[in-house]
Write a structure and sequence with these properties.
Chain lengths: 13, 257
């Protein structure tokens, strides 16, 4: 299994 | 000028102890509405969001928005010098390169001040949308701590499944397997001892136990913790810190390759 960066789930503000 | 005073200084000590292993450094963003911090762990799979509201402090003043770059290990060293009963005041001039921490004992007979060197930290700010989750579980924070600690001794990852039967934490490893199921339980008289499961639809997600275990370092801050789950999204683990604010952790799920 893999884990992607948490940043990918949120938008940059 | 920034100045924030908290009579219950032990809260600040507990906050920094809860965060320092997960987050090496980050910016305290201060404004007229309070102090916030948003930071990722070094592997960028989890996000910590801290909010301390201005009205939660005994005195709060911030004339100008500032980002104060903090090394949490160093802040922890300084806060260890504060007594548990001390009042703590944080102070910084505009554009200062240090944050002053002043500790006053309860009977005012010992006053100390420490200056923490600030750092310049580039940080990306992420927008965290308010959203409805498939399952929200409020439980005693000590219970959450016990579950993740126990399962960490068995396996590396945990499958959390929320169904109408309850919420099940499952893991496996070299020694075997483990399943712990919690059911909705509102019978304890004290609200903080209750387990409340609000399920909109069943959901099951896998997470690295190491991080969930790390989040539980916030246990001394709050009697209850809330876990929120939605398919394919990070778990949201929240501790309310009295009237002062909250600490929120987000952890990316483990997904199939």
């Amino acid at each position: 299994m893999k884990q992607i960066s948490i940043g990918a789930y949120f938008t940059s503000s | 000028m920034f100045e924030a005073r908290i009579t219950q200084g032990s809260v600040l000590k507990k906050l920094v102890e809860a965060l320092k292993e997960l987050v090496t450094e980050g910016n305290f963003d201060v404004s007229s509405t309070g102090l916030t911090l948003q930071a990722m762990d070094s592997s960028h799979v989890c996000l910590v969001s801290l909010t301390l509201r201005d009205d939660g402090f005994d005195h709060y003043r911030c004339d100008r928005n500032m980002a104060m770059g903090i090394h949490f290990g160093n802040l922890s060293k300084i806060l260890k010098c504060a007594g548990n009963e001390d009042t703590i005041t944080l102070k910084a001039e505009d554009n200062a390169d240090t944050l002053t921490l002043m500790f006053e004992s309860a009977n005012q007979d010992r006053i100390s001040d420490f200056d923490l060197k600030l750092m310049s930290i580039e940080s990306e700010h992420l927008g965290i949308p308010d959203q409805d989750y498939s399952a929200e579980i409020k439980m005693p924070s000590a219970e959450y701590q016990r579950i993740v600690r126990d399962l960490t001794s068995i396996g590396d990852t945990v499958l959390i499944s929320a169904t109408k039967e309850g919420i099940k934490f499952s893991t496996s490893g070299d020694v075997g397997t483990a399943n712990i199921t919690l059911r909705h339980n509102t019978t304890p008289e004290k609200p903080e001892e209750q387990t409340i499961i609000d399920l909109k639809e069943p959901v099951a997600l896998t997470f690295a136990l190491r991080y969930l275990n790390n989040f539980s370092k916030a246990t001394p801050l709050a009697p209850q913790v809330k876990l929120s789950l939605t398919k394919d999204l990070p778990i949201f683990v929240e501790y309310q810190v009295g009237d002062l604010g909250n600490v929120r952790f987000f952890l990316a799920p483990k997904i199939d390759d």
